[in-house]
From TrEMBL:
It comes from Slackia piriformis YIT 12062. It comes from the Bacteria. Keywords: Electron transport, Iron, Iron-sulfur, Metal-binding, Transport. The keyword Iron applies. This is 4Fe-4S ferredoxin-type domain-containing protein. InterPro entries: 4Fe4S_Fe-S-bd (IPR017896), 4Fe4S_Fe_S_CS (IPR017900), Fd_FixX (IPR012206). Residues 57-87 form the 4Fe-4S ferredoxin-type domain. One of its GO terms (molecular function) is iron-sulfur cluster binding.
Amino acid sequence: MSDIKFTVNVDEYLSLNKYEVDESNAHIELVDDPSDAEFDKLIRVCPAALYKRDEDGNKSFDYAGCLECGTCRVACGDTIIKKWENPQPTMGVEYRFG
Ligand code: SF4
């Protein structure tokens, strides 16, 4: 068994990415009044932390910064995700590595 231990700073890696946000066409949309339980599920699973609640419990979501991983679609595609598409060509995330 290996004794190699290391830590990865995910925020550091994510900050390398470049985004071309399509302001005229959101590639992810939620239903108008998403259930609290389903929304909270997305707060926990979205690796980019795009699903949020403020201190008053108000929900917000912004598709800018999406990593296009599809996790929210798998978790809530049949409940509160109304639309999930890949961004148009040349739009969305461009991954960069070190
Ligand atoms: S596709 Fe991934 S990164 Fe984008 S909003 Fe859904 S869970 Fe977050």
